[in-house]
Design brief:
single chain, 238 residues, alpha+beta, Alpha-Beta Plaits, 5-stranded mixed sheet, 6 helices, 10 strands
Amino acid sequence: ETHGITFRIQISVKEPLDTDVLLKLLFHLPVNYPSTLPDISVNSDQLTRAQCMDVKDKLLEQAKKHLSEPMVHDLILWIQQHLKYVIKQSATVCNEKPTLSKGTSTEDGIWMLLLHLDHMRAKAKYVKTVEKWTSDLRLTGRLMFMGRIILILLQGDRSNIKEYLILQKTSKVDVDSSGKKCKEKMISVLCETKVQSQHKRFQTFEVKEYSTLGELQKEFESAGLTTLFSEFVPPLLK
């Protein structure tokens, strides 16, 4: 009732060279859908990450034309008919577009997300999955372990941050007590905010372990995030 509905759809689309492209579409319909646009995530083993992002952007453009009316079926029909044009256009743009300077960002600016995980049973697999997602979505930051505390601190484009959250909440990233794959249900969003001028930008995504709370605090302080640490981390120890 408070989070809406999330579902996955897989469709096979013929590309210009007559090869089948398997699109994995994830739609999150908020509670007030269709008055609010759905969140959309696009994955495909046959497309590059940039092409997937272009497909997602085009779907959202189409979704705006159907605001206030059910749209998912129309969006699926549209991408089946137009995928080859989107891919062709994406390749052209990639070839023409100059590389972005470090100071350039999207209109939303750079955002930051702090997550708290309750536990990781299949730690090695879980960590590998998080590393892949952050790489695919061009997010930087830290996966931090200190005793029983597990934190994920991310920085990047707001749309990519949102897409990461959808993946985190809807994918089978861990195992339950019986060893079966399961979704992450024990996750808390501690903070989601725009990166300010006093915050240091992380250049990479790293997995780090800390033996004391002081070490963890220094990590936050070095990134200009002292207030973030004092507000959200110490209460986790209680």
